[in-house]
Amino acid sequence: LRQHGLKALAEKYLNVSMVPYQDLLEKGEDLENQDLEKVASYAVHDAEAALRVESEITKLFSTSENSGKIP
To answer: Is 26 helix (H, G, I), strand (E, B) or coil?
Structure first.
């Protein structure tokens, strides 16, 4: 089974482990009741990983030997 979520793609293309969303929340709490700095840091890392993964995938598809192939 191939996974295509951001966490799996970051591990594959960036060799980094992302913090799971569940680790952001305290037991039984929702996002609105969390520390703003903690939530903001999570969001920044998530966005950065998405941009870096996109960049790496774009590089792979732009090479002639990978043209039209899914890496």
So the answer is: coil
